[in-house]
Amino acid sequence: MTIKRMDNIGIIVDDLDAVIAFFVELGMELEGKGLIEGPWAARLVGLDDQRVDIAMMRTPDGHGRIELAKYHTPTAISGVPEDAPANTLGIRRIMFAVDDIDDVIARLRPHGAELMGEVVRYEDSYRLCYLRGPEGIVVALAEELA
Description:
The chain is α+β, with helices and mostly antiparallel strands. It is 18% helix and 37% strand.
């Protein structure tokens, strides 16, 4: 048996509202928010007495999702510095296909986004860049060239 699909990627954050605003500006839709707590949730993730606010973000095509989680209890643990370079072990980025990379960068800057390097051209196929957003979240953008 194989997997059916990738359902979502989870990101633990401290400022849930700021990260939601960042992803909304990127073009994702807030699918819903809720509080997760209780024995079933503690058993699922192996954390006693957990209390977590979550927000589910959806890509415009409805196929991709990001689950943002703000832990109230137990307190979240910082594992990687916010300015970790691209070669740091672990999940480093999420890539999104965009229509206009320059427009997306300009819209995300007021939400704390900074280019990690430059916007580069890959052959005659793509313009690409890496952005660091709030809380060190790294997104890559890919604009397909006609």
